[in-house]
Amino acid sequence: MSERLEDIAIAMTAGGKGLLAADESTSTIKKRFDTIHLESTEENRRDYREMLFTTKEAMEKYISGVILFDETIRQKASDGRMLTDIIRQAGSIPGIKVDEGAKPLAGFPDETITEGLDGLRGRLKEYYELGARFAKWRGVIAIDSNKFPTWGAVRQNAQALARYAALCQEAQIVPIVEPEILMDGKPGNHSIDRCYEVTEHVLRTVFDELFSARVKLEGMVLKPNMVIDGKNARKASVEEVAEKTVRVLKSTVPATVPGIAFLSGGQSDEEATAHLSAINAIGNLPWKVTFSYGRALQAAAIAAWGGKKQNVAAGQKAFAHRAKMNYLAALGKWTKKDEQAA
Ligand code: 13P
């Protein structure tokens, strides 16, 4: 495969394929395992991810790349193969989460700054040697009806994203630039128009900082939230979410960016799929538009698996189904009938 950043970015987002975000930190995967009453041991985490990455149909046909956590990029499957080799053998690209999480931002109560820039150049070099060809950094932006986000928090997160992206490109790694405006934060009752306004402001600021940091837009992937009302105020229709999301992206994201891959952010599995399909159905978009889902790709698979060996086939079937639904959505071709067909 080509090693040019622009070719990798296209391979990550083209042809209906999308990304599997399997980069839950140790504390986040514990929360997911708690839902099936499974202890979060290194072996259980390995077994779970091995189940996903060995789902042949999904990995070969629908998943362009997998975002891994530090532990997973070094881990071996039960048969001794590196998990990264299993991903590559399926024709998918290994990637790595390199941020160290959102921490309280000094001087800004209730807002966060994502840490992880110190020593990042060295870590990227090692991750490249371990096989990563793209990376992820998530900036978290609080939102409410009037007070949040503050300008200071938006700018500092945008600057961190830009510094990270420049370091990635220096290391021949495609940066996924993820400024997430929370849909499921507190209080979670903001309107869709408030989300539009904040998303526009955040994306403008992020691209301003990327430009100042000399990041090559051809060699990156944007991972944004959709324009959607807060989790405790969800009422916008699928069409309204799609229309407003496309409008804000067209007014802020340069056409030189090859691909956009959405996060799911707490949307239900089917909502995340329906929105993505409606966005692509609008058509005439200057970038490839696909998914980079964590929860919306994995929730059904975790539940079907339940941590039991005898359920691996059921877990894989659930994962393959969600991956296929989102593949259809990335082509703008998903319908409710496709869900029922399964
Ligand atoms: P969700 O799709 O669960 O929001 O996770 C995607 C992700 O990688 C967030 O950083």
Automatic annotation (TrEMBL):
InterPro entries: Aldolase_TIM, FBA_I. Transmembrane segments: none annotated. It holds the Pfam family Glycolytic. Pathway: Carbohydrate degradation; glycolysis; D-glyceraldehyde 3-phosphate and glycerone phosphate from D-glucose: step 4/4. Its EC number is 4.1.2.13. GO terms for molecular function: fructose-bisphosphate aldolase activity. It catalyses: beta-D-fructose 1,6-bisphosphate = D-glyceraldehyde 3-phosphate + dihydroxyacetone phosphate. The keyword Lyase applies. It is an enzyme of class 4 (lyase). GO terms for biological process: glycolytic process. Keywords: Glycolysis, Lyase. NCBIfam families: FrucBisAld_I. Belongs to the class I fructose-bisphosphate aldolase family. This is Probable fructose-bisphosphate aldolase class 1.
